[in-house]
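Quick one, T. Sequence first:
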Amino acid sequence: MNASNSTSTPVAVGERVAVMDVLRGVALFGVFLANMTGFAHTGVMATESQLVALPTAPWDFALHDVLRWLVTDKANTTFAFLFGLGFYLQMRRLESRGITFERIYRRRLSVLLVIGVLNLYLLWTWDILHLYALAGFVLLALRGVSNRTLVVLGILCTAFGRTAQKTLSEFAGAATWTGAPDPYADPAILARQHLSGQGDYTGLVANFFDWVWVDYLSSGLLVGWLLYALGRFLIGAWVGRHEWIERARDFLPGWRRVTQWALPGGLILEGAAVLLKESPLLTDFAHREFVSNVVHLVAVPMLATGYVGAAVVLFQDERGRRLLAPFADVGRMALTNYLTQGFIVAFVLFGVGPGLGLAGRIGTCALTGIVIVAYGLQLLFSRWWLARFDYGPMEWVWRALTYGKRPRMRIAKPPPEHTRGGG
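Structure tokens:
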């Protein structure tokens, strides 16, 4: 991607932050949508027979395939890419100020790891924060490698991390080699629904603990997912080194070219992968699922790149900036909003406390509507909060624990006009 020869100047600091925050906010919507609909789908919190019996079943399954085409894996790819980019920029800023950043950076990652592990075991068994913390430690160790090494490692992990994850999952055979029951089978799903219906939080935590231990830790699946996240982190750091996001306006022609091939190419390839995986209209053939997985492997980073490029290009236009600006507030409070989304999923699907306990009784269409409304409320809350405070609630906690002191929370008010210096 080459810099433009036009007279455009580098994007201002505030605008550069806004670009990244917008991208993070958009990605967080996709993560929320994929998590809510995926967790409530077959194999996790609902059986196929339950969802097929719903009056909206044909529309639910059709929309689920559309979301697999447009959102699933693309949202978390973009989110991980941005985390990697953000972590790299933080390291670079600290280093440029002459600060011994390794100790601070390790504390930052350690705090995130603790938050992620607590989230993983106490609320959201699909937590990704612990993975991001672990990937951040690897990124810290690799910060001195060349650009070529960084991008090659990133591509290899991106390409084969998911393959490793799938291979380990298939090898584990849903953990049958350990003698444990299949956590994705109907009996396990119904057991989780029963605990939910009884409002048994302790039982649910124990159930998910067993699930995480058997299907994620002891099976080695954690390694595959770590490589999956690390590949996106490394690509993010590589992009950060080139300042392609920070100085997006300087590189606008390149972003336009990338978007023009990545967006339609990714949509076509991922559409083909979903059809190969799901469509009953296609003639079956040997290795059909393998071909689908390979196409998906190529399509995901391509389509995610197309999404990032489209947002970056759109943001450089005044109308596009106004359209995307609300997402920046959610992006600035990404940790708070991500953790909150876990509570929203639990409230909708589980019957603990005030929870609605809708698992197995609600389809993808209704869940998508809930996500849109809930995310809209997050947009409004984030805007309200950041008009009054410098940091989101969990961002403040993260920063305080990292630096060992409490940062100012409320936005400092400017002094009255008559107290300011001047002629």
